[in-house]
Structures are given as C-alpha cells and as structure tokens.
Write a structure and sequence with these properties.
Blueprint (H helix, E strand, L loop, with lengths): L7 H22 L13 H6 L4 H13 L15 H11 L13 E5 L8 H15 L3 E5 L5 H5 L26 H9 L14 E2 L5 E4 L6 H10 L5 H5 L1 H10 L4 E5 L6 H8 L3 E7 L2 H25 L8 E8 L1 H15 L7 E3 L2 H8 L14 H30 L8
Parallel strand pairs: 1-5, 1-6, 2-4, 2-5, 6-7, 7-8
Antiparallel strand pairs: 3-4
Helix pairs in contact: 5-15
The chain binds adenosine-5'-triphosphate (ATP) and magnesium ion.
Length: about 400
C-alpha cells in the first residue's frame, strides 16, 4: 500500500475532523443560530417592501404607542422585521393567502443540474417573501443541507427525524438501538410511530425551516425497495399527503431540491403545486436543464399511468440565475422561444456580491459593507426582490383565480 491508501475508517475520521474544523471556522463566518439576528430595517428598506412613506411614519407612531420604539430618532429610526409585521397585522394589511384557500402553495425550486443556484434562489425567495409578510416554510430536502446552513443551522446538531425524513420513518428508525432500549426502559412509548417534526424557527420573522439531513437519502432507498408493490399508488402520493400537513399552516412553502434524479425527488416534485426552475446561462447548465425536463416527464408520466393523477404545476416559472453577459443574449433568446409565457422575465447576475455573502453563510439581505462592495450588494438585493415580486405576482394570480376575491391582504 502506498501512503495514499485510505479506508472507510479514514473517511469517518476525516468527516469528524472536517466537521470540527467547519464548526471552528463557522464561528467566524456566521454566528451560530442562537446568536443570529436579522438586520434592523430603515425607511428605505420598508419602502422596498412596499410600505408607503406615510405608513413608515404611522408605524413609528403605532410602535411608540406600544412603547416599542424609542421616542427619539425621527425619520432615521430603525425597526425590526417583527415590528414591521406587527404593524401590518395591526393595520390588517399583511399579505396572506385568501381565506377561501385552505392551504399554502407549495413551490418547488428544482433542477437536477448541480449548481444551478437552487439553494441560493430558495434562500432569497423565502426570506424576501417572509419579509413582505407571508408565512413561509422553507424545506431543505438536500442531504448536503446547504439551505439549512445558509439559515444558520449546523446540520450535525440536528437529528434526521427533524427533517422531512421524520415524516417518512418512525422515530426509532433514526435512533441507536441502545438509545431505543434506554428510552423504553424509562417508559417512553410510541417510538415505533411516525411523529411529524415541528419546523424550526429561523432568525427571519415569518420564516420557518424543515432542515436538511443525510437521513433524507433513506427515503429514496425505502422507495426503491417498495415501489412496484401493491401500495404503489399510495406510495407515489405519500409525500404529497405529508407536505399537505405543513402547507395548511403557511401561505407559501418553498422547497429546495437535490442535484440528483431519484424516485424521492420525482415524487417530491409531484407533491408541489408550483415550480420555479432556476437556469444559469452557461451552456452546460442549459443542457442539464433539458435533461431534467426529460427525466421528470418520462418518470412522472409512467407514474401518472399508475395513479391516474394528471399533474400540473401552476405557476411554472423559469428564472435565469448566475447570468453572465457573455452568454446571456443567446440563452435568453433561446429560453424565450422554448418556454413561451413561462420564459425567464427576471434574472440574477453572476456576482461576487452573492458568492461573498453566501460564503459568509448569509443572504444578500444580511450582507454588510465589510462582506463586499455595498453597491454590488444592493444590486443583487434588487434582483432578488424582482425575482420574489415575479413569483409573488404569479402566486397571487393563482390565488385570485381560485378564490375569485378581488383583493386579499393587499395594501
Ligand atoms: N448569482 C450568483 N452569483 C455568483 N455565484 C452564485 C450566484 N448564485 C449562486 N452562486 C454560487 O453558485 C454555487 C451554487 O449555488 P447553489 O448552492 O445555490 O446551487 P444549487 O443548485 O443549490 O447547488 P446543488 O446542485 O449543489 O444543490 C454556490 O457556490 C453559490 O455561491
Ligand atoms: Mg443546493
């Protein structure tokens, strides 16, 4: 054996050591979740969220009447996001799904092409929609748990049963046999039952998270062994039922997908009402997107023949991510021709401001001037705001069609 030989014990040692190192450096990169605070908002930020100037002043008056804002500061005061939401609630203008719609819209952010900016798009969409006042649940279904990390949680401190896998397997599935025995000896019951995990709170008011975990891969293993049996139609739609349990408590559910084709991810796509398809403008990413569309249509069509459910994602929106000037025109023209009304009307440029924020495990909404050039951060924020507004208006259109209500929670 040469000095380059490594065995599984070595892999495990590397994994543990890497986690320790990441843990140590993450303290520098981003505060651990408990210390993480969303930045205070100024008047300009509130205007970006759609508040009018007079509402900013009215909010100050309201908060002062509650003794929730210091008397000084005038127009230059700053408020927390939860104070903005309290004001919107007080005025009855917080946006929400219509009352006639019993469940939130489940939006998949999916493209099996790796690195298409799924997690980044999910992060910014979820934060931006929560900032506007919607109750948002972000679901991380990637064992890499990128979105979970961006939201300040270290996956190795979470149990797999806290992820979507917890809705699939009984509690004892994720426990060491000796821990099960010890719990049972103490009289704990029901460990052989499935208990849907509570979403965890994030530092963004209005945004909760069902975190990612390596345990999510087990869903696919389970599906592979069971699909084709008698309960196949039920199995195909199990994730749909599981997600529906969460959707009723939120306006919008946004799910980050894995960069891999699998039964789990295919059925998960079927469990969503709407689709945001991030497509970078590099030609390899465009080709990868075609593969994604091929695979999904072939697999889900074959399952449509089994369960008879004709799936429609409404809305289905394409968004250009990591847009590079070099290729943009050609790819945009191509996307316009291919996707028609679904074509990308909004884009996010490939920008060091985004990658610098992400490497500090923050969204661009939280980046500060020491993270990167402030003008570039602002440009990236504007672009993500435009993506969120684009998605929001399509969701509202669907809500309007479903509810027939003229206005719902609009300002
Ligand atoms: N607008 C952008 N400008 C520059 N870099 C970006 C931008 N958006 C995303 N990135 C970078 O691209 C990489 C991939 O992004 P991200 O993790 O969001 O993609 P993904 O599709 O979720 O990846 P995976 O397929 O591994 O899940 C990351 O390193 C991220 O920092
Ligand atoms: Mg990802």
């Amino acid at each position: 054996m040469t000095e380059f030989a490594a065995d599984l014990a070595k892999f495990a040692e590397w994994a543990a050591s890497l986690e320790r190192e990441i843990e140590a450096t993450q303290i520098v990169a981003a505060a651990p979740h408990d210390d993480r605070v969303f930045p205070l908002l100024r008047a300009a930020d509130a205007l970006r969220l759609g508040l009018k100037s007079y509402q900013w002043r009215e909010m100050a008056k309201y908060l002062r009447s509650l003794d929730d804002l210091s008397p000084e500061g005038g127009r230059n005061h700053r408020v927390t996001l939860s104070q903005v939401h309290a004001y919107l609630d007080h005025r009855g203008i917080r946006p929400k799904r219509p009352d006639s719609s019993k469940s939130g819209i489940r939006v998949a952010v999916a493209n099996f092409k790796g690195g298409a900016a799924k997690s980044t798009t999910c992060l910014h969409l979820a934060i931006s929609l929560a900032m506007r006042g919607y109750r948002v649940l972000a679901i991380d279904t990637d064992p890499q748990a990128t979105l979970t990390r961006y939201l300040g949680y270290r996956p190795w401190f979470l149990n797999a049963s806290q992820s979507l896998a917890g809705t699939w397997f009984p509690q004892d599935y994720f426990m060491e046999p000796e821990d099960v025995a010890a719990a049972e000896a103490q009289g704990v019951q029901g460990l052989d039952q499935i208990v849907f995990p509570e979403p965890i709170k994030t530092h963004v008011d209005g945004l909760d998270l069902l975190p990612g975990s390596t345990g999510l891969t087990e869903i696919d293993v389970d599906l592979i062994t069971r699909v084709g049996g008698q309960d196949t139609p039920q199995l195909i739609n199990q994730l749909d039922e599981n997600l529906a349990v969460y959707a009723k408590d939120y306006d919008i559910v946004i799910t980050d997908f894995q960069p891999a084709f699998s039964l789990f991810q295919s059925f998960l796509l079927k469990a969503h009402d709407a689709l945001v398809l991030p497509v970078p403008t590099e030609s390899a990413d465009v080709a990868g997107t075609a593969d994604f569309l091929h695979q999904v249509s072939q697999v889900l069509m074959s399952f449509e023949r089994v369960d008879g459910v004709h799936k429609v994602w409404d809305p289905t929106l394409v968004v250009h991510t990591k847009r590079r000037l070099k290729n943009a025109e050609v790819v945009e023209a191509m996307a316009g021709k291919v996707f028609g009304v679904h074509r990308p009307l909004v884009h996010v440029d490939d920008s060091t401001a985004v990658s610098a924020s992400l490497s500090a495990l923050k969204s661009v909404y939280e980046a500060i001037s020491s993270d990167y050039d402030l003008r570039a951060i602002k440009r990236a924020r504007d672009q993500y705001d435009a993506v969120a507004a684009f998605v929001e208006s399509a969701l509202r259109k669907r809500w309007f069609e479903v509810s027939g209500e003229e206005r719902y929670g609009s300002q």
